[in-house]
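Trying the structure run again after the queue cleared.
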Amino acid sequence: MSAAKRAMTESQPEPQAAARDAVLGTGVEGEPSAAQADSAGPAVTLGDTAPETDRRAAQANGAGPAVTVGDVADERNHGVDPRVAPEADVHGAEGDGVGEAAVARIAAQAAAARDAVPAPGAGAGVSDARAAGGRVPVLAADQLRRYFPVPRQLGKRGPVQQVHAVEDVSFDVAAGEILAVVGESGCGKSTVARMLAGLTEPTVGRVLVDGAELPARRTPEQQRVVQLVTQNPRAAFNRRRGIRHALHQPLRVHGLAAGAREREAAAVETVRRVGLSEEHLDRMPRDLSGGELARLVLARALLVGPRVLVLDEPTASLDASVKATVVNLLLRLRDELGLAIVVITHEIDIARRLADRAAVMYLGRVVELGPAAEVLHAPRHPYARMLLASVPRPDPTRTGPALAADMAADGAGEVPSAVTPPSGCAFHPRCPLATQVCAQEVPEERMLGGVRVMCHHAEDAGTETGAETAVETAVDGSVSGSAAAR
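Done. Tokens:
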């Protein structure tokens, strides 16, 4: 070999060193690039150009949370990058206890991050005042309002109209408690859910957790406290990525696992917690049923250790047996993890089975709030009575008009526009008990036997719904029967 060829060979790095430097984002000399050194914002990863160690170092140096853009993991390896850890290290040995240790460590990191969130001095009064009855609220919504501007037509002048989607909504949820928010379509339930999760900024009002107000623009630590489970589980996953990638991604972004092995252990432990097996991690979203996807969406939310779960229509488009499985799973998670859960639903039978407390919404307002045993069985507000009477009765011998039509024969009609809501009580155009005062004054909240009601004539409203007993019996029978079959 000539001297020139030998010098050229010695000047080239080894293949292993070159591959390692490419993964670590360093040059031949092992120094970070100028863009990495000068970056003052969050560490952004395009594809897999930076390992977990660099992302954790960036967070430790105050560079902000690691944000992953694009494909973070190799799909051929089901979301686990072989450059981070070999396949044997990813899955671990059988029975080596890595799963429990990893899950415990991730839970401790999430809890420490939640405790580190600064609590402003204001905002504790709402939770303290409502905790007098022995309940310790975790989540509180304080006078939430949300208005959406209506696009003005071209050439039209005048004030901009607004949709009053949510109007003065207040409630709280304690640890180990499920609050069901029910109402007809368009009443503002999903908008409330988005405000709780920080996806929509309230026009007026606050969202508090443990007395600390959560700002509109939340830090990653604050985002982990309240997790939203969306309505359509099939649309919640990337169709080109496997389930393993979808469950690893939250741990990567939030830095809650030391490496691929801990991420895998935490994902396996969580899918088992929701009643699925490790084999589901190897599948694509298209290969799973609606019930399996619903449980996997819930598992992904649980991975970051939330204090509050907000579920928007968790049983929509599921058959009866799958609904029973999801309902029983939520009840078990409530008891095991002590979560505060808000369930947004229009299915009264599911709310009866799940909820400890219930809130009935109409045209953006909470018209009745209290224990589910009273609100969903013996409501006091005329609209709540009409809503419960609309639940079909499993009685083939009954004929004639629906109960809801019987109860509102004198005041039945369409829901008013949220752009120009009625004056006074929003329900008075449809209410059979409406008087002149209902059209002039917004009713104040009143406590009637532990139930908060917004109605001028709540004492005059009966407590018979006629449908709740039969519906509850049918739902309880189907849920218990499905659970026994499993």
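Residues 39-116+240-283 form one domain. Worth checking whether this holds up in the mutant runs.
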